What we know:
It is built from seven helices and six strands. It is α+β, with helices and mostly antiparallel strands. Strand 3 (61-63) and strand 4 form a beta hairpin. It is elongated. The model has no long low-confidence stretch (mean pLDDT 85).
Amino acid sequence: MTVKIIPVSEVRQKIKDILAALEATGEPYFITQYSRPRAVLVRYEDYNALVEHAAQGTPPIVHRNDVSGGEPVIRGTRITVRHIVERIRAGQTVEDILAALPHLTVAQVYHALSYYYDNQDEINRLIESTRPEQLVTVQGLQVKKVAEGVAEIHDEAGRW
């Protein structure tokens, strides 16, 4: 086990720098361990907003017919649970997702994953139905695999 010694003066200065940046930008700081979020530093106002939101008891995942065809989405966004699950399946971490979709919070991503684990059959059907091969087939086209990750698409007459 490697022991890293950090003088208290350095820790104090680092915390001051983080708090100044947090106040200036409003961007939360994620404290991670083994690439997983362990804690989040947010402005007090943001914390209060989160507490109020939690007290309202509104579901974090909703179905809206006018958004993404009624697929379950993260409340207040157009990001589907399916989209989050597909990113995870592609090897992205929660941190990767947050970097790509900075308007999301850690809690929102985990709510989407929690919804998935509670409703796997529903989300797996959505994933399967939106695979490129399925979408192309619905249009009356045929897919011919050429190589790993490469395919040709043509109609019944063999035209593109």
